[in-house]
Every structure is written in C-alpha cells, then in structure tokens.
C-alpha cells in the first residue's frame, strides 16, 4: 500500500520514524511550519527553521526514498505578537520559491485573538499574491468550533480566493460541515487523545463521503503517532472498505490537492 | 458495509473498556480531595447525550464542550486548551 502523509512535523521526529514511514508505504510527506513546543526568541530562529524545512529535511527524507515538501508561515501560537509575526513573515519571500515549498501554512488561529486573526488574514493575502495553496490549522479542543467559524467567515471576505486550493485541517464532527459546505478541503488528524481517532475519521468518511478530505498524523514533538495514517487504513479494511476507497483517501486525494502546486511531483 | 453485529464483534470490548474508564475516572475524582472543577461539570453535562436517540451524539458532545462565544479575545491568556470552556457560553 502506498500513501502520502500530508501533514507531519518531522523536524521533531527521529530518523527511525522516517524508516517506519518508508516501510509502511509512505511515498511523500508534507511538513507545515508550526510551533516548536516553545516560543522562538527571535525571527532568526525562524530563518534557521525555514532553512531546516527547505534544505535539511528533504535530504533526510530522501535517504528513505520519501519525497519531502513543506509549507511556510509563522504559526498561530506565535502570531499573537503582530510585530514579531510580521518580522517572521518578511522572511517568506526569501524561501517561497524554493523547489519543495508548496504554499502558506499552517496558518490559522490558536486562542481566537484579534492579532491572530489579523496575521492569519495577512498570510492569506501573501498566498494570494504568490498564487499558492493554503493549509489552515484550526484551534484545539474547546476553541476549535469558534476558531473554525471565525476562519471560514474571514476567508469569505477574500473574493479572489479559490476555495479548492484551501484545506482547513484538524476537523472533527462538530466542524467538518462548516468547512465542506463552503467548498474547502478538510483534513482529519489522527491523534491518540485529541482530534480524531481512526474510527471517528472513518465514521466521517462514511457520513460525508471522501471528496475533498484527507487523513494525516500531524506527528510532532507531542503525543502523536507518525504511523496513524496506515493504521487507519488497517481499520478501514477491518470495516470492509475497499482497497480502492482506501487508496483514494490515503493517496489519490492528497495527491489531487497537493498537485495544485506545480512543485508537488512524485 | 459491515452489519451491526460485525461492528459489535469488532468494537464492543473497546467501547466497554472506554466506558468503564470514564466511570472509574469519575469515581477517582470523587474520592480525592479538592475544589469542584469546571471540567468535571462540563463532562457530566455531556453524559445524558449518550442516551439520546439521535445520529450525531459525537458532534453534540463536542459542541457541549466548546466555547460558544463569538467575540475575539484581545490577547491570548495562555497558549493551550483544557477541553472545556472556562466561562459558561
């Protein structure tokens, strides 16, 4: 079985994880820029991080036959200081044309603040200016529903946005229809405790269909599992989903969305 | 598509296990000292949803554990989330 991991924070993972991903059939992995588990002390920290995403990780992944792509931004957890956020965003033009950069992400909201929303909208404008796809993070736990509504409302103000080039990630049962009904793609993240379990994600596939949906592990430095996507495939098989349906959600769907960037070539 | 029996054969033990974990968690919280906590109150309010005859219990539980306010915060009071809204929404 081949699959694409469309959302993994490999800078936080070991080389052993790359080997496990490769053994599980992972052909390509996409890494959105995100929080490091702590706040960086300067924009220089992000300059180094963007170099890591665009130079070092593709080489590390290639050793295991995995193609590595990335997305750039300042994450919403560090976007509550707009001055700092804009300093980091000013670095994006230096990196946006690198050969493995797909677009802007994962932008979004964390605690649903005024500054987070302002920086989110400035990121969206950058994506429109460069005509690249957008990957959006929705908040955690009790903040997710409000944040998802705020994000969808905000995007509606961008008249030139192509909704088929926007994926809103980490949807759950209470937010998925807010995203799909407006024509955006939706990502379902498989986490051990928060976000979706494999069975809940499969429930949503059965209820909403598999158009404009993908699965990801969003594995990072926290409690997460880089193999959650192939494990979900096993659960789909146990629930009598066909091999074709499994390949569609694990491979064809992410390939279809990501191929909207001409740099996503397998 | 699997039948009800197929799903029960696959998942009943797991669901039973998770239900007992919730019951034991509530017992554990009751047994230990401390002040009442908004998270336990929020969790208890979701339990009747499980017995409702409706097709979207998971969605309803998630909505019950969500912040339903609409105004933007001036600044982030902290970076994380705790699983239940701090203020009654």
Quickly list its features.
heterodimer; A: 266 residues; alpha/beta; TIM Barrel; 8-stranded parallel β-sheet; 42% helix; 15% strand; B: 89 residues; mainly alpha; 2 domains
SSE map:
The complex is a heterodimer of chains A (266) and B (89).
Chain A: E1 3-5, H1 15-23, E2 26-32, H2 43-62, E3 67-72, H3 82-89, H4 92-95, E4 101-108, H5 114-130, E5 134-137, H6 144-155, E6 166-168, H7 176-180, E7 185-189, H8 198-208, E8 213-216, H9 228-238, H10 243-258
Parallel strand pairs in A: 1-2, 2-3, 3-4, 4-5, 5-6, 6-7, 7-8
Helix pairs in contact in A: 2-3, 3-5, 8-9
Chain B: H1 4-31, H2 38-46, H3 57-64
Describe the structure.
The complex is a heterodimer of chains A (266) and B (89). Chain A is of the alpha/beta class and 266 residues long. Chain A has one domain (3-258): TIM Barrel. Helices cover 42% and strands 15% of the residues of chain A. Chain A has helices at residues 15-23, 43-62, 82-89, 92-95, 114-130, 144-155, 176-180, 198-208, 228-238, 243-258; strands at 3-5, 26-32, 67-72, 101-108, 134-137, 166-168, 185-189, 213-216. Chain A has an eight-stranded parallel sheet with strand order 1-2-3-4-5-6-7-8. In chain A, strand 6, helix 7 and strand 7 (185-189) form a beta-alpha-beta unit. In chain A, helix 2 packs across helix 3 (82-89), helix 3 runs parallel beside helix 5 and helix 8 crosses helix 9. Chain A is globular. Chain B is 51% helix and 0% strand. Chain B folds into two domains: 1-34; 35-66, no CATH class. Chain B is built from three helices and no strands. The model of chain B has no long low-confidence stretch (mean pLDDT 94). Chain B is extended, with a radius of gyration of 17 Å. Chain B has 89 residues and is mainly α.
């Amino acid at each position: 079985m081949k699959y694409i991991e469309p959302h993994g924070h490999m800078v936080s993972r070991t080389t052993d994880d790359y080997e496990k991903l490769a053994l599980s059939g992972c052909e390509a992995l996409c890494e959105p820029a995100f929080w490091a588990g702590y706040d960086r002390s300067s924009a220089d920290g992000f300059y180094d991080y963007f170099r890591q995403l665009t130079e070092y990780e593709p080489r590390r992944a290639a050793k295991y036959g995995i193609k590595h792509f990335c997305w750039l931004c300042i994450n919403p957890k560090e976007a509550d200081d707009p001055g700092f956020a804009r300093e980091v965003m000013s670095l994006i033009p230096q990196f946006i044309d690198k050969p493995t950069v797909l677009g802007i992400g994962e932008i979004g909201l964390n605690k649903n603040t005024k500054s987070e929303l302002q920086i989110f909208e400035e990121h969206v404008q950058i994506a429109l200016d460069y005509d690249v796809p957008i990957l959006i993070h929705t908040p955690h736990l009790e903040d997710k529903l409000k944040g998802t509504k705020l994000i969808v409302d905000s995007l509606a103000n961008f008249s030139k946005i192509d909704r088929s080039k926007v994926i809103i990630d980490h949807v759950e049962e209470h937010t998925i229809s807010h995203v799909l009904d407006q024509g955006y793609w939706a990502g379902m993240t498989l986490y051990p405790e928060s976000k979706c379990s494999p069975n809940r994600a499969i429930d949503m596939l059965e209820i909403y269909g598999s158009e404009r949906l993908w699965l990801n592990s969003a594995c990072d430095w926290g409690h997460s599992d880089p193999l959650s996507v192939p494990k979900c495939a096993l659960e789909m098989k146990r629930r009598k989903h066909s091999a074709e349906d499994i390949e569609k959600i694990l491979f064809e769907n992410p390939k279809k969305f990501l191929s909207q960037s001409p740099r996503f070539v397998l | 598509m699997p039948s009800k029996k197929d799903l029960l054969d696959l998942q009943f033990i797991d669901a039973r296990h998770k239900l007992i974990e919730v019951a034991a968690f509530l017992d554990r919280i009751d047994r230990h000292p401390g002040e009442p906590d908004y998270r336990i109150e929020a969790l208890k309010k979701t339990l009747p949803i499980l017995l409702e005859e409706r097709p979207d219990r998971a969605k309803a539980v998630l909505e019950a554990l969500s912040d339903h306010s609409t105004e933007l915060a001036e600044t982030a009071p902290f970076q994380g989330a705790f699983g239940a809204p701090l203020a009654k929404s």
